[in-house]
Write a structure and sequence with these properties.
CATH architecture of the largest domain: 2-Layer Sandwich
Distance between the termini: 22 Å
Oligomer: single chain
Strand order of the largest sheet: 2-3-1-5-4-9-10-11
Order of helices and strands: HHHHEHEEHEEEEEHEEEHH
Largest sheet: 8 strands, mixed
């Protein structure tokens, strides 16, 4: 643990220096990256500082107890030892690598599942619950599509994905619908997809991936319009995209134009791939919307909400529907960190 604490202290000190470095401040992308890591490391550094204090307290109490038994010192020592154990676990958890998408804005899609008209009504209730939750967390929401049974909106703010990714899946409700005349309880569902909002795709073209051919430009019917090899054909070997340009008399100008067109085409390809990946992620998240598929059940008769992933039940339905979801989010985040920590420990064992 001493080595891990030293590592945290050294990295945090390095980040403290970088975040006020004019060279870093002048580079927007680097400054944003340093800022994100600095904020992430603040918690770990605070825990490391408390751990050192607890270790010193325990060492001091042990030294004094060697001179004679003292009930107060014995209690101080036991308290310090207990806290050291807790802090060591918290420090390990704080250093688990975060999801690379956690800081991104998100797009949330809600759609009625099993249950017909009641499922569509339930989708609207979940939409209101999640937008209220966003407001409670200080995020901004932007409606993109709002209609009966289908709701799409953006959530903007640092860490939005880290909060809302836990809402992805099937939300099941058990209640008596307003249209039910005999008071029977119906079970309905809606599906929620939470996707990190795609950022602008930066296209970096490796010159080694290009095959550039030059030739004489020609006019209609093959008539030569230039006696020099000014026309340019660029082939992007990894993708097979080919761009030719001969409008300009200068080879350099034709090359620059061809690269601009090539970059635009590769951008289009990258965006299409992103959309395909998001579509696959959405399909994996929402499942079929069947009643048996559920991440959370909302039971109106008992005022009960159960998150089946962490077996957490709260008898506070009204508040939860008003956006009070923090306890579920905190529990799911802690569970994820514990699982990642276990995987990390397994991967460092000999023979793995």
């Amino acid at each position: 643990m001493e080595a891990l604490v030293e590592q945290i202290e050294a990295r945090f000190a390095e980040l403290e220096t970088q975040i006020v470095d004019p060279a870093v401040i002048g580079d927007r992308q680097r400054y944003a990256e340093v800022g994100r890591e600095y904020r992430r490391m603040q918690g770990a550094n605070a825990l490391a500082t408390e751990w050192r204090r607890a270790v010193d307290d325990a060492a001091g109490a042990r030294e004094m107890l060697e001179e004679g038994e003292d009930p107060e010192l014995r209690e101080l020592l036991e308290t310090a030892r207990e806290r050291i154990g807790e802090l060591e676990e918290e420090i390990r958890v704080s250093m688990v690598d975060p999801d690379p998408n956690d800081d991104k804005d998100v797009i949330v899609e809600i759609q009625g599942g099993a249950g017909g008209e009641e499922a569509d009504l339930w989708a609207g209730d979940v939409y209101r619950m999640l937008t209220k939750y966003a407001e409670r967390r200080g995020f901004k929401t932007e409606p993109l599509q709002v209609s009966d049974g289908k709701y799409t909106f953006a959530v903007k703010g640092e860490g939005a994905f880290s909060v809302f990714k836990w809402e992805a899946g099937t939300h099941r409700v058990q209640r008596v619908p307003a249209t039910e005349t005999q008071g029977r309880i119906h079970t309905s569902t809606c599906t929620v997809a939470v996707l990190p909002e795609a950022e602008d795709v930066d296209i970096h073209i490796d010159q080694n991936d290009l095959q550039i051919d030059v030739y004489r430009s020609s006019g209609p019917g093959g008539q030569s319009v230039n006696t020099t090899d000014s026309a340019v054909r660029i082939t992007h070997k990894p993708s097979g995209v080919v761009v030719s340009m001969q409008d300009e008399k200068s080879q350099l100008q034709n090359r620059e134009k061809a690269l601009r067109v090539l970059r635009a085409r590769l951008y289009e390809h990258a965006v299409a791939e992103q959309r395909a990946e998001q579509a696959a992620a959405r399909s994996a998240q929402v499942g079929t919307g069947d009643r048996a598929e559920k991440i959370r059940t909302y039971n109106y008769g008992e005022g009960r909400v159960t998150d089946h992933r962490i077996k957490l039940t709260k008898y506070a339905l009204e508040g939860i529907l008003e956006g009070d979801l923090e306890e579920f989010t905190n529990g799911l985040q802690a569970d994820e960190k514990r699982r990642l920590l276990e995987l990390q420990a397994q991967s460092t064992q000999p023979g793995t």
